[in-house]
Write a structure and sequence with these properties.
The strands form 4 sheets. The chain has a 5-stranded parallel β-sheet, sandwiched between helices. It has 3 domains: about 30 residues; about 280 residues, SGNH hydrolase (Rossmann fold), CATH 3.40.50.1110; about 80 residues, no CATH class. Strand 8, helix 16 and strand 9 form a beta-alpha-beta unit. Helix content is about 45%, strand content about 15%. It is α/β, with parallel strands linked by helices and about 425 residues long.
């Protein structure tokens, strides 16, 4: 009886510990910052293979769309970038992502594309990337090398940082919607550029030694696994010193046999007046232009076209969800320029009426011209556009748009009018 009693006590204690552990797990998942999980949950759970992984900061998260890349080229990819995470963090993110793929028995990517923008990471941005990754050797190595000693415990076990977030919780903490966009975050704004672009590739400043060290580490890791490494520099119109430093990094990379596409020094069709949502980041239209250019580079690098293969069905389902996401985004846009940018979309067909004086604005004129060249219907009127609303009343607009899906041209998916000259 004594032996049975001890066994029962042990089992009871184990059950209590399991309940406490489970409760702490649920509590921790509720309290922690959700940015990392929203960005990487799809990658953690994905069953399909990725031929390309993208790494970098917000320039990449806002600039490279895997779904558009598959649509145009049939190349499978995931965007592992995160705001404020640069080359050093990219090394550890790549290392851990490869270990995750290996544990799942999935093949390694055939290519890694790394953006070279940026400087030193800060703790807040590292949390945004790493909080959803479990405690592991690579995460500990990252924390030891990139995080101040006093902040390392919370980086390794985020519960220490977020356990008192009660007063910050919102509905979004209880309803997690992981991204289905393979890591991209399209932006719906239009911004004029700063006057600080360095387009001469020979205009250089000294390259950051730590950045070169981590590029070498990424290069060696990729070489050891037969992965092609391609460096890129996504355009922006501020921080000319960072642009000059990037020129030096590109020269260093080419001297060491690493391909580097410096898009600050190339004309790939980006218009600084209409393809950026702020002075540093591409909007949804700029994203598609850059993605198309990267598809060309990756195709030349030997990436396979998977269209017509079994995995196409999964990507087509995600593409349909992505189209619906873009339609919902249009419903949230209140700015005429952002709307005209957003409807210049390969899956939309637009009928746009514009009152002639509105075209005196440079950005509106350029956006209207791009829509026209893309096959959308543009009608310039001599008077303001009068529209009868559903309530029977008439409303006058300077710009009025009716949007259709190209695969269903009979039913508009969105309409919007804008008065910008009053």
């Amino acid at each position: 009886m004594g032996s049975n009693s001890r066994i029962k006590k042990i089992l009871s204690a184990l059950c209590v510990l399991a309940m406490i552990g489970g409760g702490l797990g649920v509590f921790s998942n509720l309290m922690v910052n959700k940015a990392s999980r929203e960005q990487y949950e799809q990658f953690f759970k994905a069953e399909q293979d990725f031929d390309v992984l993208f790494l970098g900061s917000s320039h990449v998260i806002n600039g490279v769309s895997p779904i558009d890349l598959f649509r145009e080229y049939g190349i499978t990819s995931y965007n592992l970038s995160m705001h404020g995470n640069y080359v050093a963090s990219g090394y550890y993110l790549l290392k851990e992502s490869l270990e995750i793929l290996e544990k799942k028995g999935r093949p390694f990517p055939k290519a890694v594309v790394l953006d070279i923008y940026g400087g030193k990471e800060i703790v807040f941005d590292l949390h945004n990337a790493w909080d959803s990754f479990p405690l592991c050797r690579t995460k500990a190595e990252m924390a030891a090398n990139l995080v101040p000693k006093e902040d390392q415990p919370a980086m390794l076990v985020p519960f220490f940082l977020y356990h008192n977030r009660w007063n910050e919780l919102s509905d979004e903490d209880f309803r997690l919607y992981p991204s289905r966009k393979y890591g991209v975050q399209p932006r719906y704004e239009v911004c004029y550029p700063a006057d600080e672009t360095v387009t001469d590739s020979q205009d250089m400043s000294e390259a950051d030694e730590e950045k070169l060290l981590y590029i070498d580490r990424i290069n060696q890791l990729c070489k050891s696994l037969g992965i092609k490494l391609i460096l890129i520099h996504i355009p922006y119109s501020y921080h000319p010193e960072q642009q000059r430093e990037a020129n030096a990094v590109c020269q260093y990379a080419r001297e060491h046999g690493i391909p580097c596409e410096n898009y600050m020094n190339q004309d790939i069709g980006l218009d600084f007046d209409i393809d950026f949502y702020d002075q540093g980041h591409l909007n949804a239209a700029g994203m598609r232009i850059l993605t198309a250019e990267l598809g060309r580079v990756l195709k030349e690098a030997g990436m396979e076209d998977h269209r017509g293969q079994p995995e196409e069905q999964v990507w087509e389902e995600e593409n349909q969800a992505f189209i619906q996401y873009r339609i919902r985004q249009l419903g949230e846009v209140r700015d005429a320029k952002a709307y005209l940018m957003g409807i210049c979309d390969p899956d939309f067909m637009a009928q746009v009426q514009i009152w002639q004086p509105a075209l005196e604005d440079l950005q509106i004129a350029k956006l209207a011209e791009r829509l026209k060249k893309s096959g959308h219907e543009i009608c310039v009127t001599e008077t303001r556009i009068e529209i009868r609303e559903e309530n029977g009343e008439s409303q006058e607009y300077d710009i009025y748009c009716r949007i259709f899906r190209k695969d269903d041209p009979d039913m508009p998916v969105h309409t919007a009018g804008f008065s910008i000259l009053q």
